[in-house]
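TASK: fixed-backbone design
INPUT:
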């Protein structure tokens, strides 16, 4: 059973930056396709970014493309989301997600991911 713990959320001014981390345990990290999703009150979870097992391929949601960067350090069992030029609309709870996938397929849908963290809150003040 894989456990995921997010950290790094907080309050930041518009235009600022944050770096989220997702620490994984209980599995082989390099077997996991990893992703970030966000959720705001009353809405479904929304895809932010995903990364293949070795980190060679990364995918982004349209609203964050060019501002956010996903990465991972398999030796440290950790994934990151570098968030730049933050906007008030980025305010949300950010969730880390993972799935063990032999084919290294990356998808943007919540149903694809088996493991989820508890989330970290990002608040961007205008």
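OUTPUT:
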């Amino acid at each position: 059973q894989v456990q995921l713990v997010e950290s790094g959320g907080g309050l930041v001014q518009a235009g600022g930056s944050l770096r989220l981390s997702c620490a994984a345990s209980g599995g082989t990290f390099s077997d996991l396709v990893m992703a970030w999703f966000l959720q705001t009150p009353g809405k479904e979870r929304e895809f932010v970014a995903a990364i293949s097992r070795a980190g060679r391929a990364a995918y982004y949601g349209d609203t964050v493309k060019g501002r956010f960067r996903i990465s991972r350090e398999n030796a440290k069992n950790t994934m990151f989301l570098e968030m730049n030029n933050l906007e008030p609309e980025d305010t949300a709870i950010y969730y880390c997600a993972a799935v063990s996938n032999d084919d290294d397929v990356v998808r943007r849908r919540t149903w694809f991911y088996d493991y989820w963290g508890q989330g970290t809150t990002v608040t961007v003040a205008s």
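COMMENT: DSSP finds no helices and eleven strands in the chain.
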